[in-house]
Specification:
heterodimer; A: 373 residues; alpha/beta; 14 helices; B: 369 residues; 2 domains; eight-stranded mixed sheet; 13 helices; 9 strands; 38% helix
């Protein structure tokens, strides 16, 4: 783990209130012009990201909503995809959302020049459909379970997430291992240090208890992750299992459109390239006696896997959006572990690490080459 | 008087045999229908060329994984099929296909259309974990009695357009108590008669029993009133719209599965609609906070504007909505009122032009200033 600098922040009035107060102060002092934060919708059945300039709106913000309806990176990208603009913006999100912002920045889909990225210790999120069944009750359940670090009711990928406190943005809010009525602010970049400095916070406190707790949790999750992946591989590995797993897929491509990393405006699999003359479909059918129509469902899944798993942040949004409940996030997240390990890459770890698939190295992966070459 | 063919077999067997004869006699080169595609019973639309594989065909299975009109459009998008095929579609799928043909997104040439009076389909979620299979016998009981099955797609419960308009052949399903004993198909067109020529059965001069169907239509009208009424109380004015669409996550799944939404790149995914940083800065002069990504309600209103004239009320949009917005009912309700204004029934007649692309000098004078 990096040598982070940190500060213990007293929070007599509660963690949320203290953070909101700090954000207000930052807006007042002009450290930020606006912040991106989750807020509850008027109907109380959802949470959305809002770009807030008027500090009076901050009191309604939610730092850790119980669900992830929209991946935060999508919100950030919608604000800064076409340039950094004149506004200095702070975004407070879960670690996997901040990591996706960093991937999108590397993919040229968001400009974080004027942004301060702030992550927060994450207990996971509830599956969208579970939440919608009873928003009020879910909220209560989430609060209780988050407090007790119980992940049974969270998204399956959250239950095995070993990066729920990963620091890769500018600042991080640590609640794990903190004494009562306090939390940690941890800085990861010069930009982050500058922000807290302007807020009059000194980064010279020990954060060992946070580090120890985070290490403990992520090691535990890694064990669970390994076990769950062995299980999942036996169920979905190999061509037959793979085809069975995706046999219900209806080609709606919801998974792709909610994915923070899938940023193509027109996906190859929606393009003219996959539209064929009637005769082609018929001759394909004749060869096998029948084809599913549309064909190539598995090709889409494998294509998407190839295109995005190197940057997959295991947020789980794809699985929540799947109308036929395919465990798509669990599968993609498992494959992502392997593709990323192959290149010693962790998606969203650092903005300075180039994405392997767009980086040419002459000496790489020799073991994949033909032995006779 | 319409001709009808009576086959003395139950409907499932009758239809499979019918299709086998068509393929074996080379009348058609392919059959487009729902088919079991995996051990675990997944059902998907398939293009079948081998007569033996017709054993897995389930043309009347009460499920619409994808609106088949959209699929046939994909099949014929690059030009009509040279080899004849026969396609099974539910009435709203057929109407969807006809609307797409009007938009130059497909062709009916060399396609024999078979449809049926439709008892409705279940939400796609029911097809998972075998729940739908368990319901099947109950479903067919209610169809035979001409009643509305509980748990159907809301759009199906409220559907009064369950008789196909432009099919070559129509299977008589709802309100038909003899489904297990015999199979009656109405030959609506010359194409349909030609197709049924080689099939063993009794040729009758018979019309579909309209009284029986009127009865069912009335039941659906009552259900529709109820469902529309529930929506009206929720969706009043701008606040109601915001309340209902507030949880939309912007996946645009509704547009991707819609048989009418055919644009390769939707306007709402187009760079023209993308907010620039300066747009946000300008917006901040008017309000202190902006939902991001922006344009949630705008998207739905825009889509309503674009497609309501042709909405066939199939319910596919609602099936894929990850946050359970009652979108099919909203679109169906608004669709019907727009269609009424233009006296237009989408998909009824392939020759009839879409009102929104038809200029009439004297029209809607009352909405003018």
């Amino acid at each position: 783990m990096n040598e982070f600098k940190g500060a213990v922040i007293p929070a007599k009035s509660g963690v949320k209130k203290t953070i909101i107060d700090l954000l207000e102060k930052a807006l007042d002092k002009g450290i930020f012009d606006a912040v991106i934060l989750p807020m509850e919708v008027p109907a109380g059945d959802s949470f959305v990201y809002v770009l807030i300039k008027d500090k009076s709106l901050l009191k309604d913000a939610f730092l850790l909503p119980p669900v992830m309806f929209v991946q935060g990176a999508k919100a950030v990208s919608s604000v800064t995809r076409l340039g950094e603009g004149n506004l200095k913006i702070a975004a407070i999100m879960r670690p996997c959302e901040i990591r996706a912002v960093i991937e999108l920045a590397k993919l040229g889909q968001t400009n974080i020049e004027n942004m301060t990225l702030i992550s927060i210790d994450c207990p996971g999120v509830l599956p969208t459909s579970d939440f919608l069944n009873d928003p009020k009750k879910s909220m209560q359940l989430f609060d209780d379970d988050a407090k007790n670090l119980d992940d049974k009711i969270m998204r399956p990928v959250c239950r095995i997430c070993d990066k729920s406190s990963m620091v890769s943005g500018d600042l991080h809010i640590g609640t794990l291992g903190a004494k009562k009525d306090t939390f940690f602010i941890i800085s990861n970049t010069e930009k982050g240090e500058d922000v807290v400095d302007k807020l009059g916070i000194n980064l010279k406190d020990k954060i060992d208890s946070w580090k120890a707790k985070v290490k403990n949790i992520s090691e535990e999750k890694q064990k669970k992750r390994k076990k769950s992946h062995i299980d999942l591989k036996s169920k979905t590995g190999g061509l037959d299992n793979f085809l069975d797993t995706f046999s219900q897929c209806i080609n709606c491509h919801n998974c792709m459109r909610v994915c923070p990393v899938c940023s193509c405006r027109l996906c190859y699999f929606d393009s003219d390239k996959v539209k064929h003359p009637a005769e082609d479909y018929l001759s394909r059918a004749e060869r096998k006696g029948s084809i599913r129509f549309l064909p190539d469902t598995a090709l889409f899944q494998m294509g998407r896997m190839m295109h995005m798993t190197i940057s997959c942040v295991s947020c789980g949004c794809c699985e929540d959006a799947c109308p036929v409940s395919i465990p798509v996030a669990q599968i993609f997240s498992m494959i992502a572990d392997e593709t990323q390990a192959l290149f010693d890459y962790v998606s969203g770890r650092s903005v300075d690490e180039p994405i392997p698939l767009v980086t040419y190295k002459e000496k790489e992966l020799h073991e994949m080459e033909d032995a006779n070459d | 008087m319409t001709k009808a063919l009576k086959i003395n077999k139950n409907t499932d067997q009758g239809v499979q045999e019918f299709l086998k004869v068509l393929l074996e006699n080379n009348k058609v080169k392919g059959v487009f229908t729902l088919k079991k595609i995996s051990k675990d019973g997944s059902i998907a639309y398939s293009l079948i060329t081998d007569p033996d594989q017709l054993n897995d065909a389930v043309p009347f299975y009460p499920l619409m994984p994808v609106n088949a009109g959209k699929l046939l459009s994909r099949f014929t998008l690059k030009g009509s099929t040279k080899k004849p095929i026969v396609a099974f579609l539910k009435p709203c799928e057929l109407r969807g296909f006809v609307e797409l043909i009007k938009r130059e997104q497909g062709s009916l040439e060399n396609i024999f259309i078979i449809s049926s009076t439709c008892g409705g389909v279940y939400p796609i979620k029911m097809s998972l974990n075998g729940a739908l299979d368990k319901n099947l016998s109950k479903y067919w009981d209610t169809v035979k009695k001409g009643e509305i099955s509980p748990d159907l797609r809301p759009a199906c419960k409220a559907c009064t357009e369950f008789i196909p308009y432009t099919a070559d052949i129509t299977f008589d399903l709802i309100g038909n108590p003899e489904l297990d004993k015999q199979c009656v198909l109405f030959l609506n067109t010359k194409k349909g008669e030609e197709l049924a020529k080689d099939i063993k059965g009794e040729l009758l001069e018979k019309k579909i029993d309209s009284k029986k169907l009127d009865n069912i239509c009335n039941k659906r009208e009552i259900e529709k009133k109820k469902i529309f009424g529930e929506l009206e109380t929720k969706m009043k004015g701008m606040d109601g719209l915001i309340e209902i669409f507030g949880k939309c996550i912007g996946c645009h799944g509704c547009s991707k599965v819609c048989p009418i939404c055919y644009c390769k790149l939707c306007g709402f995914e187009n760079s023209d609609f993308e907010y620039k940083p300066s747009n946000y800065e300008a917006d901040f002069r008017k309000r202190g906070g902006i939902r991001v990504p922006p344009g949630t309600l705008f998207y739905h209103l825009g889509r309503l504007d674009h497609i309501s004239i042709s909405c066939v009320g199939c319910g596919s949009c609602e099936d894929v909505c990850p946050v359970d917005i009652p979108i099919s009912i909203i679109f169906k309700k608004i669709g019907e009122s727009v269609q009424k204004m233009f006296e237009y029934i989408p998909g009824k007649n392939v020759e009839e032009e879409i009102p929104l692309i038809t200029f009439k000098e004297e029209e809607f004078a009352e909405v003018e200033e």
